[in-house]
Amino acid sequence: MLGFDKFLNWFSNIADHWDTKGIKFTVYATIAVVIGGLFELIPPFFLTQTAVPISTVKPYSALELAGRDVYQKEGCNNCHTQMVRPFKWEVDRFDPTKAYGKAGYSKGGEFVYDHPFLWGSKRTGPDLAHESQMLRSDEWHKNHLINARTLGGVPNSIMPAYPWLFEDSHAVDIEQTVSNMKALSKVGVPYSEADYSSAPDMLKGKTEGDALVAYLQKLGRDSAELEKGIK
């Protein structure tokens, strides 16, 4: 215990010293935090090649992008993740059709056009990263969104109902969606003038519910197409 007492006395002397130099200690601590933060934040900006591009991954269409906005607006990402972790039991659960081969977990290249990322961490509901491969129809998704408890297999679901999303009063905001596409092009999403000009026709007469269904049917589709090509 003698050695431990010496350590405590040494530490106490240091604490007493800095207790009388509050301003200097604050400045030094701030410098240390800034330096540590720079070492933490700067390197990732130079590691762009760590995410291997996936050739089949394409930007969201205007309708899918509008659906993604609805997904965020309604807080779907608060209960659903979009990231299958690299564990066999998890891959088996969320890749039942084996659409992604032996590597059915999420890859960095799948999210290159996601701004922001919607990986999430809470699974009140199931992960949706591979939702397109669950082989559910648009009609199934529509009914599920209108009232999840009316469908077979999920009678005890606690998911809220979203019937208003399919009402005419909740039509997709075409102007806002095109504006969002143009903004995303500024951060690297390869939208073109042709995409902007074709968006109004794609979105005309579509409700927010239709857009949300289109977005759900997009999740995981492109990377599954790559695996099919390899096979």
Termini separation: 67 Å
Q: Specify the overall morphology.
A: elongated
Query: Residue ranges: pLDDT <50 for 5 or more in a row?
Result: none
Number of strands: 0
Kindly provide the radius of gyration, computed on alpha-carbon positions and rounded to a whole number of angstroms: 25 Å
Helix content: 40-55%
Architecture blueprint of SSEs:
Blueprint: H1 2-19, H2 22-41, H3 62-73, H4 88-94, H5 138-146, H6 174-185, H7 193-203, H8 208-218, H9 221-230
Helix pairs in contact: 3-6, 3-8, 5-8, 6-7
Brief overview, please?
This protein has 231 residues and is mainly α.
List keywords for this structure.
mainly alpha, 0% strand, 231 residues, 9 helices
Give a written overview of the molecule.
This protein has 231 residues and is an all-alpha fold. The protein is built from nine helices and no strands. The radius of gyration is 25 Å and the shape is elongated. It starts with a helix and ends with a helix. The mean pLDDT is 90.
